[in-house]
What does this fold into?
Amino acid sequence: MESLKPPSTLASIGIIARFELVRLFQTTRGLLSIAAFAIVWYFIFKELIYRAAQWVSVPGFRESMSDMFGQIGLANLLQWPVAEFVMFWLFALLLFPILTVMITADQTSSDRSRGTLRFLTLRATRDSIFFGRFLGQLIIQCLLIGGLLLATFAMAMWNNSDNFSFALTSAIIMGTNLLIVVLPFTAMMAFFSASVRSSRLAVIVAIICWGFSLGLINYLAMKIPPFGVLINILPGTQLPDLIQANDWATLKHAWLPLLQTLGFLLLGRTIVQRSSL
It folds into this structure.
């Protein structure tokens, strides 16, 4: 009788990525996480985005606010044509990095603590597990971003259906950018999740390391200005520039998070390959 062949690396990555979706949509913990996410964004939409969009839509408001926004470097924020997407863009850039750190913290850490990671390696390589979990979390991020953009689009159409083409273009541009924004944070948590045995500890260590690195780099930059370039190793450093951009010009900042993602994935893979299970 011919023995069963183990799936290829790509097939294993796909299977593990799908399992991440199963953990989210078919477990009590996953459904509670979705419910909490939906409730938080419901109040953001209702109390912040909707009300702020009404103010931005008032004739002359953008002109009167452009000077004030210009003083804090946010003048281009008002150049987005649809008011609802103006406010969504601001809140999404501020909140999604934080949410990503919390949502994607448990990629391999809990499996290591329970001992199931050793069992998984009987049917899949360590690379398959590491990259499969990363891909699964990235797909989840895409679904969350897509759902929020759909809600923003529906709100924009409810308020003014004449903005259909502008709203659709804004949704595509923002969705592309937000996916790029969350990439390095998801990769960073893949690295920290591979380094510790608890998702909670992964979040704590990530925050401490990010904050300590930011303070150290700023201190070194004050003493020796060329060290300021090291700030580019930290995820999220392009966000101030991204907030100040609009339309497809936002993609000119995409190279930095893509490089950061590659760097964290290489570090995480090294940890997974060399660590004991």
